[in-house]
């Protein structure tokens, strides 16, 4: 097991009716900038609950944070926050709203341009306080310090994060998921699954506790997925899904373990170039990545095959291949495409992405052995 330091300062407030806790979690002395996405919170009752809870607070609303939040939009929110002298940002929405709000909170406290913070995370030394009300389980952003920010002008999608970017608290009421579109739920399931795999599917590191926790979360998702797609108004099902998505990326399963994240980095480029939904990009890239990197990941693939999918027959290679097939079938079972051609992406885009990685001269994966030539093989296999 590798050395590690684990600290997660986010307070998790979970359950029915918990949005009302906002009234006591945020001091009435704060000037609050409340950030929203496209308006779904007005249809599912969340907006009214937030408004009621903050009736005695100084509140200004900012609307319009898009999926894959764009720095162009976030700059507007930062400017508003600075004019108001806001000292608390409350994100109400899914992962994109929370991601974007992390940059907003940092940007309000920063004198320069927000994209500087994304390009150089070390500049984000201070932020105003941040809280979250989660409406879509997927990214885990509600309980970590990371975010992914897009730049539409530059066609870039980059990771932003700072130790100061953890939400002070996050409120999770599973009832708010009842009206989510099935496509968003499917993407959320895939996103959560791949988050776990990025931290688990590497090489054995004697992190027995982490392995079992990760495998437990994966098995939970496999069990929940068909029930979610059948009836998303089952409180017990949705509460377990919501908590699984949070635990998948709050550092809980990453203690002392090597991590991969190649699929996410490649997927970000698909989004940057073609606007592909994040969960879809992961479902397309991940099975192909496993096929290309099968020899490097053989030991963990066999363990995954046996413990998560119950595959016990065959040679190690046969078990590994069967597990990869099961993974792709699982993504398809929640109606998410697993091939680039299904989302109208072809070889010209592959060439653009490969060239970008070649230009950046970076290597991905837990062994830092996935260069632009390997990325090309992965994407061509994804066609």
Keyword list:
single chain, 383 residues, alpha/beta, Rossmann fold, Dehydroquinate synthase-like, alpha domain, 2 domains, six-stranded parallel beta sheet, two-stranded antiparallel sheet, 14 helices, 8 strands, globular
Plain-language structure description:
This protein folds into two domains: 11-176, Rossmann fold (3-Layer(aba) Sandwich); 181-382, Dehydroquinate synthase-like, alpha domain. With 383 residues, it is an alpha/beta fold. The protein is globular and about 65 Å long. The mean pLDDT is 97. The protein has helices at 22-25, 46-53, 71-84, 95-108, 114-119, 182-200, 208-230, 235-247, 262-274, 278-292, 298-308, 316-333, 347-360, 372-382, and strands at 11-14, 31-35, 58-62, 88-93, 129-134, 146-151, 156-161, 169-172. Strand 2 (31-35), helix 2 (46-53) and strand 3 form a beta-alpha-beta unit. The chain has a six-stranded parallel β-sheet, sandwiched between helices. The protein has a two-stranded antiparallel ribbon with strand order 6-7.
Given helix and strand content, the structural type is alpha/beta
Give me the CATH fold name of the largest domain: Dehydroquinate synthase-like, alpha domain
What is the CATH top level name of the largest domain? Mainly Alpha
Shape: globular
H and E order: EHEHEHEHHEEEEHHHHHHHHH
Count up the domains.
2
- The H-level CATH homologous superfamily of the largest domain, spelled out, is Dehydroquinate synthase-like - alpha domain
* Helical content class: 40-55%
Strands in their spatial order, largest beta sheet: 1-8-5-4-2-3
Low-confidence segments, ≥5 residues, pLDDT <50? none
Distance between the termini: 37 Å
Q: What would you say the CATH architecture of the largest domain is?
A: Up-down Bundle
Biggest sheet: strands, sense, closure? 6 strands, parallel
């Amino acid at each position: 097991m590798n050395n590690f330091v684990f600290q997660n300062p986010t307070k998790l407030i979970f359950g029915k009716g918990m949005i009302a806790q906002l009234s006591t979690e945020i001091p009435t002395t704060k000037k609050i900038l409340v950030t929203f996405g496209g308006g779904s919170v007005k249809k599912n009752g969340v907006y009214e609950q937030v408004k009621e809870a903050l009736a005695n607070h100084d509140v200004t609303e900012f609307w319009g944070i898009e999926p894959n939040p764009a720095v162009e939009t976030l700059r507007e929110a930062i400017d508003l926050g600075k004019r108001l002298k806001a000292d608390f940002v409350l994100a109400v929405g899914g992962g994109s709203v929370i991601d974007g709000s992390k940059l907003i909170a940092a940007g309000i406290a920063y004198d320069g341009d927000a994209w500087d913070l994304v390009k150089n995370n070390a500049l984000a030394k201070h932020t105003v306080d941040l809280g979250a009300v989660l409406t879509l389980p997927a990214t885990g952003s509600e309980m970590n310090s990371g975010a992914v920010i897009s730049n539409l002008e530059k066609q870039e999608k980059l990771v932003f994060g700072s130790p100061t970017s953890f939400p002070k608290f996050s409120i999770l009421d599973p009832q708010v998921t009842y009206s989510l579109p099935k496509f968003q739920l499917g993407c959320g399931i895939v996103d959560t699954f791949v988050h776990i795999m990025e931290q688990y599917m590497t090489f054995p590191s004697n992190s027995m506790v982490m392995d079992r926790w990760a495998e437990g979360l994966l098995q939970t998702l496999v069990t929940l997925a068909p029930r979610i797609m059948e009836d998303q108004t089952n409180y017990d099902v949705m509460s377990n899904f919501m908590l699984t998505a949070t635990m998948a990326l709050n550092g809980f399963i990453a203690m002392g373990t090597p991590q991969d994240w190649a699929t996410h980095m490649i997927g970000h480029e698909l989004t940057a170039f073609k606007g592909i939904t994040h969960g879809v990009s992961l479902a397309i890239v991940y099975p192909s990545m496993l096929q290309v990197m099968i020899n490097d990941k053989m030991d963990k693939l066999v363990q995954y095959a046996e413990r998560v999918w119950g595959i016990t027959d065959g040679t190690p290679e046969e078990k590994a291949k069967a597990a990869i097939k099961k993974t792709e079938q699982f993504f398809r079972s929640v109606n998410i495409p697993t091939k680039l051609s299904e989302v109208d992406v072809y070889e010209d885009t592959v060439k653009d992405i490969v060239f970008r990685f070649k230009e950046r001269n970076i290597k991905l994966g837990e062994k830092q052995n996935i260069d632009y030539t390997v990325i090309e093989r992965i994407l061509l296999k994804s066609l």
